[in-house]
Design brief:
With 544 residues, this protein is α/β, with parallel strands linked by helices. The protein is built from 13 helices and 18 strands. It starts with 15 loop residues before the first strand and ends with a strand.
Length: 544
């Protein structure tokens, strides 16, 4: 099932990839949760937007304890979202529109409802079924203490105790995330074989690639040191590269340019680049760029570091401003502290949404002008902000409970609110008129001005900016491949050239500046001054 009109095998080197969070994109059956039929109906919107590929967050059969990142069956679609036949149809129709499809694979952990885990619980201590996971007796006189002190990423201990069939407390099992997400033992050959079969299952159905969830966490130190403040017993261990080398062989055995994209949260850029060595993952998300403050010096340092490290391993850089795990960019850039840390949010602090939106527009042009591929998270193109005022009882992210219901760090629901498509009031076309339920998270009333319908024909809208930039990015030869060269610019201004005739200028300072290079404006993120000067928080694409 090749993608017509997109034969290049290295499409992923410069693609614009749109992230769909299925439960919040579009709801066709009216139950308040998005579904595949909803996506199918909106494919023309995505084609018109000018993207090259879609990455779907998990659509697999799941009890939804972590919004689908607890996968019970890697080969079935959750009935909440649709059927396997619909997923196949979606891949076919996307391909017919020239759009590739990347699916999520969640190898570090599974669901406590996965048949292997249920069998492990039933089979009891010492059984071969338990060896596919990390079961251990507890410490203390009665095994009442967890085997190690490790904390889970969502808060609380990374171990939960089981109950034996006779009702007495039994062994503990490891889960780096929620208790409903037991970690696999990747030293076990059956685990490795099973995932290669899962990759083939979706490649056989036309998937163009995988986004690899929690990619650095798979391998654990079998000694399980009790204290591990540095997380080195389970993060970024050498053997994980062996796994990705074998996955790469699977991907390369298929035609059409299939890719592996890693979700690797590591602060250290040198370690990040190791995942991109020849024969391993094709690309990884650039979280240092996402986390960086809106600051010219800091951004330039991240950009330079990124390009240097990727060059060394011959891999393309990626650029990402938001996803389903982080506060939306309009909100981040509207705060006094514009940097971001995934496990330490600052909800409730003042946000200037107008300022954030102006910066997010400039950031969109900066991001899309950089060499490599770009990701955009659904709703970014509509300028949506983080919804901080979700009522406590409606919050669904397991982080909310596990981090002790902390209003300043409430989890990730605020970036997962269903998209507004049309109309003056909720559900804003997310669900059909005869829907039987409200959207699974409430949409702010102010989103009436941010629907697709409201922005569609407004040349000054965020949607129009994204659409113009994505199309220009495709059409301009200078924006494919190649590197960037920095141009002389005043303090607080980023200016660089791509090729001979394209330049991007971003003013992150607090005063208007003259254009650092003469040229014709191709695109601007906001109005220029009377004499053509670039106001603060404004970016330009220029033909020079
Ligand atoms: C990744 C996902 C996140 C999920 C976690 C556990 O970080 O992006 O949404 O909760 O892994 O699977």
């Amino acid at each position: 099932m090749p993608v017509p009109g997109a034969q290049a095998l290295d499409w992923w080197r410069h693609a614009a990839i749109y992230q769909i969070y299925p439960r919040s994109f579009a709801d066709a059956d009216g139950n308040g949760v998005g579904d595949l039929a909803g996506v199918l109906a909106r494919l023309p919107y995505l084609a018109e937007l000018g993207i090259d590929a879609i990455w779907f967050n998990p659509w697999y059969a799941s009890p939804q304890a972590d919004a689908g990142y607890d996968v019970a069956d890697y080969r079935q679609i959750d009935p909440l979202f649709g059927t396997l036949a619909e997923a196949e149809e979606l891949i076919r129709q996307a391909h017919a529109l020239g759009i590739r499809v990347v699916v999520d694979v969640v190898p570090n952990h599974t669901s406590d409802q996965n048949p292997w885990f249920r069998a492990a619980l039933a089979a009891g201590p010492g059984s071969p079924e338990r060896e596919r996971f990390w079961f251990r007796p507890g410490r203390g006189a009665d095994g009442e203490l967890p085997p190690t002190n490790w904390q889970g990423f969502f808060g609380g201990p990374a171990w939960s105790r089981t109950t034996d069939p006779d009702g007495t407390p039994g062994e503990w099992y490891l889960h780096l995330f929620a208790p409903e997400q037991p970690d696999f033992n990747w030293d076990h050959p059956e685990v490795r074989d099973e995932f290669e079969r899962v990759l083939r299952f979706w490649f056989d159905r036309g998937a163009d690639g995988f986004r690899v969830d929690s990619a650095a966490l798979l391998i654990k130190d079998p000694a399980l040191p009790v204290d591990d403040p540095e997380e080195r017993a389970y993060t970024d261990r050498e053997e994980v590269h062996q796994v990705y080398r074998s996955w790469r062989r699977v991907a390369d055995s298929y035609s059409g340019g299939r890719v592996l994209i890693g979700e690797v949260w590591l602060p250290d850029a040198e370690r990040l680049a190791r995942y991109l060595r020849p024969g391993e993952l094709h690309t990884i998300f650039n979280f240092p760029y996402l986390e960086c403050a809106w600051d010219a010096k800091a951004l330039r340092a991240v950009i330079d570091d990124t390009l240097r490290l990727h060059r060394a391993v011959h891999a393309p850089a990626t650029w990402v401003l938001s996803n389903h795990d982080v506060d939306r960019v309009v909100t981040r850039y509207g705060r006094e502290d514009t940097s971001f840390a995934i496990y330490a949010r600052h909800h409730g602090r003042p946000v200037d949404l107008a300022l954030g939106a102006r910066r997010a527009r400039a950031a969109a042009l900066l991001t899309q002008a950089l060499p490599g591929s770009v990701y955009l998270y659904q709703g970014e193109e509509l300028g949506l902000w983080e919804v901080e005022e979700i009522p406590d009882e409606l919050r669904q992210d397991p982080m909310w409970e596990r981090k002790g219901r902390n209003p300043a760090d409430p989890g990730r629901d605020g970036c997962r609110v269903p998209l507004p498509w049309s109309g003056a009031a909720a559900p804003f076309g997310f669900s059909p008129a005869d829907a039987t339920a409200e959207p699974w998270l409430p949409q702010p009333a102010q989103w009436h001005a941010h629907t697709v319908a409201a922005q569609q024909d407004d040349p000054d809208s965020m949607l129009a900016l994204y659409r113009s930039a994505l199309h220009a990015r495709r059409d301009l030869a200078e924006l494919r491949g190649g590197e960037l060269s920095w141009l002389e610019a005043p303090a607080g201004v980023l200016a660089f050239r791509r090729g001979e005739s394209f330049a991007c200028v971003v003013n992150l300072s607090d005063r208007a500046v003259e254009l650092p290079v003469p040229g014709t404006v191709l695109l601007a993120s906001g109005p220029l001054g009377a004499a053509g000067e670039v106001p603060p928080d404004t970016a330009l694409w220029l033909q020079v």
